[in-house]
Amino acid sequence: MSTPSTQVAIIGGGPAGLLLSQLLHQAGIESVVLESRSRAYVLGRIRAGVLEQGSVEVLRAAGLGERMDREGHPHDGAAIVWAGRHNYFIDCWKYVGKRFTTYGQTNLQEDLFAAADRRNAQVLDEALEVMPMDVTSARPCVTFRHAGRSQRLDCDFIAGCDGYHGVSRSVMPAAVLKVFEKVYPFGWLGILSETPPLPNLTYANHPRGFALASMRNPMLSRYYVQVSLEERIEDWPDERFWEELKARYPEELARAIVTGPSIEKSIAPLRSFVAEPMRHGRLFLAGDAAHIVPPTGAKGLNLAISDVYYLARALTSYYRDGSSTYLDSYSAMALRRVWGAVRFSWWLTGLLHRFPGMSDFEQRAQECELDYLARSQHAQASVAEQYAGMPFE
Predict the structure, then answer these.
(1) Residue/partner pairs of 144-149 with CB below 8 Å, 24 or more apart
(2) Residues with catalytic roles
(3) What confidence score (pLDDT) does residue 218 get?
(4) Fewest CB within a 10 Å sphere: which of 9, 115, 128, 292?
(5) Taking a C-beta distance cutoff of 8 angstroms, is the pair 1, 150 a contact?
(6) Which run of H or E residues covers position 60?
(7) What is the pLDDT of residue 86?
């Protein structure tokens, strides 16, 4: 068994892991990234595409802004339609002076890999049987298999950026870890199509269920409809999907939706999940390893970026100044932002979806809340502030 060493071992080569590696490199801190999947697999995952202004600024500072600024599309806000006719615009620019940018996570992942290649970063794909060890000691390590050989990577710190199903969270003792979870009784059926999108991200609350029109670029659209968890992809040919999507939008918007063959189709269940704390000894969790939010609020990728921003700052302070202040406050600071996003995503999910067994009273109350939102500037300012993303601490 070989025993190389580094300052920070990063488990997971998705956006959180590679962005952390990039930020640490800028600060002169060594890292090794261990990713269990192949690069092709990681690039093939179709995920989020909405970046808060704070996330955009972090990516620019990390040297990852050139393509994003060229191909991403800034938006002042997003629209909500309901009752088949009402239309309300979450005006982030008007109320908080912020815009968000639509830029596919696949594109960001490509940018991160390109940046890693330029600096000859140590990114080990298909690293198997990864296991953090001795995380409460002064010198933790990660054991794994790569290219058929058992290896051990000694390090100062371990960053668990390996997602909800990753190994990092599992090494935290049950007496330490507290989990909060809410599972929703429906999922999102989503398709990607090479068609021009609607001008604005547009949410729909309809008696038939929720829908969302989103985008990746001027010729790549992302659409979703709420479905039961029993639905199967094979029962949703493109023709049925487009018919159902259009039925959930007012006639004018439905006519504006350009249909075409899907190039990707999937059903994603919705859940809220938070693991506390986000640190155990010298192991730090970031991104989906610590939290999952319903995609309604477009917060998942943005939370991963803010976690990494806090963690990179903490590690930089430790190595440059010998200060552990930010390391010691990392979990509490990150969780404040996480819970804010979790609460907002939970609220927006409840506002826009039709739940099984929903009573007439509950439906009227939901519609009344939407009506109030459309009339009250104070309510609009609150929603815009949360949708745009709260400032970093």
Answers:
(1) 144/34, 146/34, 149/1, 149/2
(2) 75, 203, 295, 299, 387
(3) 85
(4) 128
(5) yes
(6) helix 53-61
(7) 75
Q: Distance (Å, rounded) from C-alpha 266 to C-alpha 257? A: 20
Q: Provide the token pair at 245.
A: 């999507």
Strand order in the sheet with 31-34: 122-124, 31-34, 8-11, 157-160, 283-285, 279-280
Q: Where are the domains of the chain?
A: 8-49+104-181+271-348
User: In one letter, which amino acid is 224?
Assistant: Y
Quick check: 31 and 6 in contact, CB under 8 A?
yes
Q: What is the 3-state secondary structure (H, E, C) of 282-323?
A: CEEECHHHCEECCHHHCCHHHHHHHHHHHHHHHHHHHHHHCC
Would you tell me which CATH number, out of the four given (3.50.50.60, 3.30.43.10, 3.30.470.20, 3.40.190.10), belongs to the domain 8-49+104-181+271-348? 3.50.50.60
Helix axes of 15-26 and 300-321: crossing angle, nearest 10 degrees? 30
Rg of the chain over CA atoms, in angstroms? 21
Tokens of 161: 């950026």
Q: For residue 371, count CB atoms less than 10 angstroms from its CB and return exposed for 0-12, middle for 13-18, buried for 19 or more.
A: middle
Q: Which pLDDT does position 327 carry in this prediction?
A: 98
Measure the CA–CA gap between 190 and 212, rounded to whole angstroms. 9
Cβ–Cβ under 8 Å, residues 375 and 90: no
CB under 8 Å, gap of 24 or more: what pairs does 56-61 form?
Answer: 56/100, 56/101, 58/19, 58/305, 58/306, 58/308, 58/309, 59/19, 59/108, 59/305
Element counts in the chain: helices (H) and strands (E): 12, 20
> What CA–CA distance (Å, rounded) separates 23 from 34?
17
Confidence (pLDDT) at 3: 66
Amino acid occupying residue 8 = V
Question: Taking the model in full, what pTM does it have?
Answer: 0.95
**Residues lower than pLDDT 50 in the chain:** 1
